[in-house]
Amino acid sequence: MTIHFSQRGNRWDSLLFPIEDNRFELTLQFRIRLVRIEPTTQYNDTNTYAKGDGNLQYADGHRTIKLEPWNDLEWEMYKREFKNVLERNWGERFVLTANKAWYTPRPGSAPVNPIIKCSLAIQVVDFVDQQPHFMFRCIHFHPASYPDHFRSYASTYYGLGLITHEDVKIVWGPQRTVNPNGIIFGQIPVIHEFGHILGFDHINGDGNDESAYGVTIDQQNNVMGMGYSFADKQAEPWERAMNRHLVRENRYDQSVKFTGHVDGPQITAYWDDNWVSASDPAPASVPIDDAVQGLAGVTWKHMTNLPNR
Ligand SMILES: [Zn+2]
């Protein structure tokens, strides 16, 4: 097996590096351009546009959002937080392991099956000549004009998206789906939007129908639904990247297969208006304030106060 340590791609670059004999780090590297949209900014994309008159318009003509200027300090903090939130969440979530030993640390030593830590590195860039992999326009909306049905978006096809000044913080009930279980999920919207950049559709299908964000609690709780938890299959971009880093030279090499899984517990905070529910992953007999173990290693923690939203 020959290893390429560095790969370049249209959608992202990646780096595979041994940390020690039994440990590798695989880092997906993104250059993301953040564009500061002011009330005076003019632009036009497929979903939204602005004429510089202080408003953001949806291309469908039905929605207008009043913009506020960004403050310089707030903008610098926002760019830093954007990077931190993504690196800490998508980047410290998964490990890959192979079905058999594949790596020989030094000539003559026995092959090993190292743990591969899946990391993410975001470089925020300001200019198009820095060859960004993706571009987000960033708006600061006027609180009074924020419509319920507004959604940030990211289009991998166009390589661009739109996010708001609130999207690096946790938002309660980002999708106002009528939830028969009375549960409101917390989500940091940029983590969800970045999932689209990694190539994921919504958890229960393409599109923006309510059902696409999940029909079961476990789906809704996922980061590609309306929640904040990750599933093993969301390590897939690292699995694919890993395969590009290796040159398989013989039949044994061909039979090495990598699978990703969530590494460590996840905590999900949520609000439940009517806790006793047979379809809930928590057994109904569990007392209200106990943390219970849900699916996929997710710890569900019932909250005692309704979050602001
Ligand atoms: Zn989405």
Describe this structure in words.
The protein has about 300 residues and is of the alpha+beta class. It has one domain (about 1-300). It has helices at about 70-90, 190-195, 215-220, 235-245, 250-255, and strands at about 1-5, 5, 15-20, 25-35, 40-45, 50, 55-60, 65, 95-100, 115-125, 135-140, 155, 160-165, 170, 185, 245, 260, 265-270, 290-295, 300. The strands form four sheets. Strands 2, 3, 4, 9, 10, 11, 12, 13 and 17 form a nine-stranded mixed β-sheet that branches. Strands 14-15-18-20-19 form a five-stranded mixed β-sheet. β7 and β8 form a beta hairpin. It starts with a strand and ends in a 7-residue tail after the last strand. The site of zinc ion has 3 residues, from α2.
Order of helices and strands: EEEEEEEEHEEEEEEEHHHEHEEEE
- Identify every distinct bound molecule in the structure, by name, code or SMILES: zinc ion
Residue stretches low in confidence (pLDDT < 50, at least 5 long) are: 274-280, 282-309
Mean pLDDT across the residues is 84
Shape: elongated
Q: How much beta, percentage-wise?
A: 25-35%
**Main pleated sheet:** 9 strands, mixed
Instruction: Report helical residue fraction.
Output: 10-25%
Number of strands: 20
Number of helices: 5
Between the first and last Cα atoms, what is the distance in angstroms?
Answer: 52 Å
As a whole number of angstroms, the C-alpha radius of gyration is: 21 Å
Number of domains: 1
- Structural class comes to alpha+beta
